[in-house]
Specification:
The chain is α/β, with parallel strands linked by helices. It is built from 21 helices and 13 strands.
Length: 485
């Protein structure tokens, strides 16, 4: 009987040679497209990984290792595609989550797409004055727009809203105490909690009130000589209902003025328009916070604003100047692509009459159910014929969600295309759709794939239908993964 060492040596001897793999017929296309040195490195890495797997496997595990040349070629081709083809590509979001963090949150408008194309043709005047030719301020591209749209005195931008909150606190309340209601100690996703953001800013968090009820007296009793700011955080990703109470921003502003303490309003999703005009629940308006008298307000660029990821900071000029002079501001500043996209997004808000169509997020939120039903029925008719005997297709009612930490309690009625594959597992169909071109993301429920038509763009329906047909009609369609067979 062979001992383990001899068995492993036998498997190691079966490893294909790099020279034979690179001359395989399937590799010809790739060796003409890409550098030979790159291909060799990828081949060698695949062989080295297989060698390590053999050396670290038990005798029983060795039996499951595939050492065929074809298997290695599939792995190598998959790796080449992953490395050389763009990973940031257009995908179809049929999940029904409008601001899906995993899928890049808010879709960008056509105006933004055009602006980015123009700005990336060559150089751009990011931080230079066209009038004087001297060094300029990158905030100048968006500052006037932000002050005009919100009523604030001044504005600046960080790379996301968590960064904006930390930058504000570090600039205004470092080494001082910051008062926050216990009911507003949010977690913003990915295990990032407000407590930690405040701590990293160099300020000391002082919790006031209780989880469900906080009174003005709680804030007042907590004020000391070392109080540096009062922070109000809008709970944009959850709701507390029932026996609750929170202090209105206007009362916090009056308290701040009485004790000469700045009031910071972290709005999270940050609405520039009144959602109730479109039949949606009210979200606090950025302009209202400024009008009430908050000293500094911050909010996200890639949520309800429907722009790029950014932490937008607006407020009193003296505080914005303090923030802009903070060395952290340079570390957390945005690039020319963000500035370009944000400027183009903000310009959409200059026309109230067209914002419901030009703002992609608002357009998705307000799509009529009749429109979704028409699209769903058309797709169902097509797919019922083309997938006869291969899948059950029907149209059902459902709900979309805003996601991205916005309107957490709101379920928006929608129409769903439901597909139940008859000959393959539903998760296999879902996986193959994510590998199609373009990739399609859906959700699974009771052995069916559900396609929410609310988040499928107008020009994506045919592409999605073709992807579904390809995955269910092509019996050779498979997903290649880098793992042991």
């Amino acid at each position: 009987m062979q001992d383990s060492k001899e068995l492993k040596q036998e498997y190691l001897a079966k490893l294909p040679a790099a020279g034979k793999l690179i001359h395989h017929a399937k590799m010809k296309e790739f060796t003409t497209l890409y550098s030979r040195d790159l291909i060799v490195k990828i081949i060698q890495k695949s062989i080295d990984e297989a060698r390590n797997t053999i050396l670290n496997s038990t005798d029983e595990e060795l039996k499951s290792i595939n050492l065929s040349k074809e298997y290695f070629i599939d792995i190598i081709i998959s790796r080449i595609n992953k490395i050389c083809k763009p990973s940031m590509e257009h995908v179809i979001n049929a999940t029904g989550i409008i601001l899906s963090t995993n899928l890049g949150r808010a879709p960008l408008s056509k105006s933004v797409q055009e602006a980015l194309t123009n700005a990336t043709k060559g150089y751009s005047p990011l931080a230079v004055s066209l009038e004087t030719g001297h060094r300029g301020d990158r905030d100048s591209h968006v500052q006037e727009l932000l002050t005009l749209l919100t009523g604030a005195e001044s504005a600046t931008v960080a790379n996301n809203n968590a960064a904006a909150t930390m930058l504000i606190l570090n600039s205004i309340a470092k080494d001082k105490e910051v008062l926050v209601s216990r009911g507003q100690l949010v977690e913003i996703g990915g295990d990032f909690q407000l407590v930690e953001v405040v701590h990293r800013s160099g300020a000391t968090l002082v919790e006031v009130g209780s989880t469900n009820r906080t009174h003005l007296k709680n804030y007042k009793d907590a004020i000391t000589e070392n109080t540096g700011a009062i922070l109000r955080v809008h709970p944009s990703n959850y709701r507390i209902i029932g026996f609750t109470e929170e202090v209105p921003l206007a009362d916090l502003v009056l308290l701040g003025k009485e004790y000469n303490i700045p009031v910071i309003d972290d709005l999270g999703s940050g609405a520039l328009f009144d959602l109730t005009k479109y039949g949606l629940p009210a979200e606090p308006l950025v302009s209202e916070s400024i009008e009430i008298g908050a000293d500094v307000v911050c909010f996200s660029g890639d949520k309800l604003l429907s722009g790029p990821q950014a932490g937008i900071i607006i407020g009193k000029k003296k505080y914005i100047q303090m923030i802009k002079k903070n060395p952290l501001a340079r570390m957390l500043r945005v690039c020319k692509l963000t500035v370009t996209a944000l400027e183009a997004t903000l310009k959409l808000y200059l026309n109230d009459d067209t914002i419901a169509e030009t703002n992609p997020t608002l357009r998705i939120l307000t799509r009529p159910l009749s429109e979704l039903n028409e699209t769903a029925k058309s797709l169902a008719d097509r797919l019922s014929k083309s997938l006869e005997g291969k899948a059950m297709v029907q149209v059902t009612d459902g709900y979309s969600q805003v996601g991205g930490g916005s309107l957490p309690a709101e379920n928006i009625p929608t129409r769903l295309l439901s597909i139940k594959p008859l000959h393959i597992p539903v998760d296999t169909l879902g996986k193959n759709l994510r590998k199609s071109n373009p990739p399609v993301f859906t959700r699974i429920q009771q052995d069916c794939l559900l396609f929410d038509l609310r988040t499928v763009m107008d020009d994506e329906s045919d592409l999605m239908a073709f992807a579904i047909e390809s995955c269910l009609n092509d019996t050779t369609f498979s997903v290649i993964e880098i793992k042991r067979s």
